Amino acid sequence: MSTGTCAVAAVTGAASGIGRATAVRLAHDGFEVAMLDIDDAGLAGTRDLIEAGGGKAHAFSVDLCDPLAVGAVAREIAVTVGAPEVLVNVAGIGLLANVLETSDEDWERVLAVNLTGPFLTTRATLPLMLDRGHGVIINIASVGGQVGLAGRAAYCASKAGLVGLTKAVAVDHAAEGIRCVAICPGTVGTEWIGKILANAPDPETARAAMAARQLDGRMGTPEEVAAMVAFVAGADGRFVNGAALVIDGGLTAA
């Protein structure tokens, strides 16, 4: 472990994908990690990985779209683990649909998970950071929050909203020692992408097309996104605030 501290980091969506990689990386960097998700088995798997590496992790099963549940778990973390100095909002879902194909229910579900969830966790955690006089909130957005992606209407809208929320929090609370940063990945090879591909008419062709969108000709890895999170959360990232950092293998360069 590199920091030698017992600072606490809270990570949502920690049961798999980018959330799991982020929790593991922050634990490696010396944070005691509070992991939030609705997938109990996945959380247990992430905790095992962290503890096998000598880190400390605590699992909290919570519906991140439920205001009362989020408030309660934030208080529980503060009492049992400690007030988080870093909050990483990773939990998110995608939907392959344009506006005409998007139902009311799907629209509400995508916005609830991708935008309302980070709002609720930020609102619940921010007072604890303000009491301390410093804190870092990192939102995993997407390049889809900055450019349009075909067949991703609700997803793009939710991630654009998350970038806007990030900037607003930074502006409102920078003078109080709070940094808020969005990280905008391109296509990352996660379990969620695997589910999307599995439902495609031709999964291999769809996978090749997703990989080809990046100039690198490949999808990113959860660990590469986690490395960016670690930079922003650490001392080397202390001048980064209110930004939407793109990590997309060149997807948005062309």
Structural summary, described in words:
The protein has helices at 17-28, 40-52, 67-80, 104-132, 153-173, 191-198, 203-212, 222-233, and strands spanning 8-12, 32-37, 57-61, 86-89, 135-140, 178-185, 244-247. With 254 residues, the protein is an alpha/beta fold. It folds into two domains: 8-185 and 221-247, Rossmann fold (3-Layer(aba) Sandwich); 187-219, no CATH class. It has a seven-stranded parallel β-sheet, sandwiched between helices. It is globular, with a radius of gyration of 17 Å.
CATH fold type of the largest domain: Rossmann fold
Q: Name the overall outline.
A: globular
| Helix percentage range | 40-55%
- CATH architect. name of the largest domain: 3-Layer(aba) Sandwich
Oligomer: single chain
Largest sheet: 7 strands, parallel
Mean pLDDT value: 94
CATH homology group of the largest domain: NAD(P)-binding Rossmann-like Domain
Number of strands: 7
Identify the notable features of this structure and list them briefly.
single chain; 254 residues; globular; alpha/beta; Rossmann fold; seven-stranded parallel sheet
Write a short abstract of this structure.
This protein has 254 residues and is α/β, with parallel strands linked by helices. It has helices at residues 17-28, 40-52, 67-80, 104-132, 153-173, 191-198, 203-212, 222-233, and strands spanning 8-12, 32-37, 57-61, 86-89, 135-140, 178-185, 244-247.
List strands and helices in order, with pairings.
Blueprint: E1 8-12, H1 17-28, E2 32-37, H2 40-52, E3 57-61, H3 67-80, E4 86-89, H4 104-132, E5 135-140, H5 153-173, E6 178-185, H6 191-198, H7 203-212, H8 222-233, E7 244-247
Parallel strand pairs: 1-2, 1-4, 2-3, 4-5, 5-6, 6-7
Helix pairs in contact: 1-2, 1-8, 3-4, 4-5
